[in-house]
Amino acid sequence: MSTPKRWHVIASAATLLVVATPAVVASAGPSDTDTARHGRAEWAGSWAAAVTRGNTVGLTNTGLNNQSIRMIVHTSVGGDRLRVRLTNLYGDQAVKVGHATVARPNTGTPDDRSDIDAATLRELTFGGATSATINKGAELLSDPLDFAVREQEDLVVTLHFPVLTGPVTFHGQSKVTNFIGATDLTTAADGAGFTIRPNCCWMFLSGLDVERRHTPGSIVVLGDSIGDGNGSTVNANRRWPDLLADRLVDARPEVRTPGVLNLSLAGNRLNHEGPEPGAGGFPGYNELGPNALARLNEDVFPQTGVKTVVTHLGINDIWMSGDSAEQIVAALRQVNQQVKARGLRSLAATLTPYEGHGNPGVWTPEKDATRQAVNSWLRGAGAHEFDGVLDFDAVLRDPAQPGRLLPAYDSGDHIHPNDAGNQAMADAVPLRLLGL
């Protein structure tokens, strides 16, 4: 879908007063007794984000320098232990991580998102060390940490980068406020030192896994800005994959539920690169990510315990790039083939209406005919190739004007669903198609 409005973050924080910080309990690295102590427990993804190259200007291009970033993540499933995944996939150089912590937010203070509960603060380690280097193009996995994670709870990960990182590897559409401040603030319970507060951007952070017994694995959503939450309420976790995770827990209270990993990227396309310009004067940005087939090896297959992939892509190829139905269907078929070749369940979703969105040329009757042709294929021949099809078009469209979103589900831009629309999408997913 269309990219959110660009932000311009000025990375010029003044020298800050550092308040007294609580003691930090260091995590132990993996030991020989781990397997015996935890029996048949397995790792599963609880939260994840797709990442892209930093943009050509701004903070994501210059990077962080003796700064800390405090990021909020919302788990889908819980477990007895956690580990955090950091990434420098798109970096131009190795990146030094000086210090890293995890905690629960302090919900009893006025600023309950940047303030943390000091009693829950724990230090993350890497091979037993409190600092580490993320090699260029690489991922860094923290040591397992005894930290009981609950289902659908917010956790706070704070990272300090003591020297200039260069261009960041990041997710640009977080729909949650994150926090940046000068110096090492990883143990600061009070969030006052975090003076840059954009409603965006998980930087260098790509996943949080939990250890569970008899886990059914994870569901990955490979989508665009509809899955990424454009149109949903900031800091409310009302994206449809979040709401699907809520529904799974509510529907299956007596059994283990799969994690839901939202690997959606606003503006992502099946057949085009993020910087490619589009219709209506849209310029393109790095943060829209590479084409979806390239994302399979980067975003989907490496996820911990992935069992099912839901692909909801193609609308941006229509409105931005003017692709034909044949081009979109060919890409969807290739995604399906590669997902199934990995032994994973493969689902697809129909493309939702967007009449009324954007400048002239963004929506045209011809482009809507392309959308309808793709949906007809998905409901017909495509339904026999994929393991199932989620008919989000039928859920969100206005029956009186099928090219438009139902007003009750329209966030106002005529392409992205609001909270109610996201709930309707989550409620419409047949759980049997998820293999449950």
From TrEMBL:
Keywords: Signal. Gene3D superfamilies: SGNH hydrolase (3.40.50.1110). It comes from the Bacteria. This is Lysophospholipase L1-like esterase. PANTHER family: GDSL-LIKE LIPASE/ACYLHYDROLASE, PUTATIVE (AFU_ORTHOLOGUE AFUA_2G00820)-RELATED (PTHR43784), GDSL-LIKE LIPASE_ACYLHYDROLASE, PUTATIVE (AFU_ORTHOLOGUE AFUA_2G00820)-RELATED (PTHR43784:SF2). Residues 1-28 form the signal peptide. Residues 221-424 form the SGNH hydrolase-type esterase domain. It comes from Micromonospora palomenae.
